[in-house]
Amino acid sequence: MISSHPPWGGRLQPLDVSEPAPGFLELELDAEPPPGGWHPGHEIQIRATPTQGRRYTVRAVGVTDSGSERITVLAATDADGPGTMWMRRLRVDSRTTVPAGRHRPLREHGTRRLHLGDGCALGTLDAYAQGGDAPIVTVEVPADAVGPLADRWPRYRFLPATGAPGDAQQTWLERTVGGDEVRNLDGAVLLGHAQSIQRQRRVITDSLNLPRHAITTKPYWATGRAGPWCPPTRPARSSTPGVRPAERTSRKHPQPLKDCT
Question: With 260 labelled, which of 36, 46, 73, 245 sits at a CA distance of 20 to 30 A?
Fold first, then answer.
């Protein structure tokens, strides 16, 4: 039994563990709801080792046959880190306890949004792309995962990763900004690789004249950073959520890492 001891901890039991595409695991979990209930985009935290925590995003929320709440979590597993090892050890008959507070959604802007991210962000992007006006969702994933993921999510565009992280998305974005597909955007959500997010935001602000406040960003990992990585410290006037550690030989970002361990 794997357990953690948060101030608030809810019971969690796997109902199903599957691999929807190479490098991804999807978990269906019978989960005791936190205060306020579960919501798509909700974050849970697991204790992967006695000293390492990892965070994952609830992709979808449903109800089990017995009437309890069921959550679905999608995680990228192309890194052999503690989070991946923890997930691969889960069995349908295992039980654990996870901390999760009230849902704090991303601050999105507009209704006609562009969503960009890598495999780490797919579960989060899917959770948030359910709203808005026909959002454009483009995700960079390993080449062998493109086919199965495109079959599962035909509305989304999956790009095979080539070269450096984010290169495939950058090429697509630079080719697309002059066309009709993105002409009427009034918001954007950029998740995943820190350096890629910076490049993408520059293109969007320069070519689409979208103001920076209309662009939601959340980096999960960074090239050249192994282990915990924090953004540069600023003089803070209010409490700021902790940062997620990384893991993947130089890939990752803040606090108990997100969806890609």
Answer: 36
Contact by Cβ (8 Å): 188, 211: no
Q: What share of the chain is helix, strand, coil (3-state, %, to 5)?
A: 25, 30, 45
DSSP lists the bridge partners of residue 12 as: 31, 96
Specify the amino acid at residue 74.
L
> Rounded to the nearest 5 degrees, what angle is found at the Cα of 12, between the Cα atoms of 10 and 13?
160
Adjacency order of strands within the sheet including 69-76: 43-49, 52-63, 69-76, 24-31, 10-18, 96-98
Tokens read off for 20 = 């929807």
What would the pLDDT profile of 91-147 be if each residue is shown by its tens digit? 887 888 887 888 999 999 988 899 999 999 999 999 999 866 678 999 999 999 999
Torsion of CA 222, 227, 230, 231, to 10 degrees: -20
Amino acid letter, 244 = R
Encoded amino acid at 83, one letter = G
Percent of the chain past pLDDT 90, that is, above it, reads 51
| Count of Cβ atoms closer than 10 Å to residue 175 Cβ | 9
Enter the pTM of the model. 0.81
3-state secondary structure of 212: helix
Q: Name the amino acid, one letter, at 260.
A: C
Find tokens 């993921």 and name the residue: 149
